[in-house]
Amino acid sequence: MFGKHILRALAWVFLVSSLALAGCETIDRLDRQSDDLIDKINDPSPPGSGRSSSSSSRSSDPPSASQPPASKGSGLSVVRRDAMPVHTVKDRHGNPVDIWGQSRSTSKTPGHDATIEAKAYAMAISGKYEYITMQRCWRTATSRLGNCKSIPDVIGVRRDGKVDAFEVQSRTDKEKDLEQRLEAGMETLPEERRGDFAVILADPSMKGGLLRDE
Fold first, then answer.
1. Any bridge partners for residue 16, and if so which?
2. Contacts by 58-66 with C-beta closer than 8 Å and gap 24+?
3. Where are the alpha helices (DSSP H) in the chain?
């Protein structure tokens, strides 16, 4: 058990170090490599031991950090990572809604990060969503159902199973480019899962601080 924790930590060191060198363009490939390494840690059975390594056979295994249980309503869930931030808020009906990830980014546009946070918060309290992610790739936000290199600023999984995504436009961004990026990510989802996507402007008057554990 102790050895597994060490290996899991080493997997994350590998991922973070690789990201620093490779940048966002290879985020999906590195995400897959990290998933594969963590899956091997959780299921160390050697080949020929009678236990299949396919996703269908692993579906009956106990949930792990890389294999969370599906949500009851949407059928989707976040692929949880060690030390991934999460804030829980109450929606208009009193239901808890988790917001995964963080709004902090490298953008220098005033109000960019605070607008991400405000959008995520507004979606969470609307009563429409089961959970929200901030700056997490499609794969992580949708139980690996979506498969795209891009990382939307906000992804919301509705209670009916549809997925919405949003980008906050920085001064250096072109709206058309962001729209195309969102559309490309949305198209990796099954058609019945595709919801709305849009680009929103950063509001320089936003100050942040909306999210806190309740």
1. none
2. 64/38, 65/8, 65/38, 66/35, 66/38, 66/39, 66/42
3. 2-22, 27-42, 55-58, 112-125, 138-141, 175-186
Amino acid identity of residue 152, one-letter, is P
Q: What is the pLDDT of residues 142-167, one digit of tens each?
A: 999 998 879 999 999 999 999 999 99
Burial of 129 (0-12, 13-18, 19+ CB in 10 A): buried
User: How do the domains of the chain map onto residue ranges?
Assistant: 2-58, 86-201
The pairing of strands 163-169 and 129-134 is unpaired
Residue 67 has pLDDT above 60, yes or no: no
Query: Residue 38's pLDDT is what?
Result: 43
Q: What is the pLDDT of residues 22-41, one digit of tens each?
A: 443 444 444 545 544 444 44
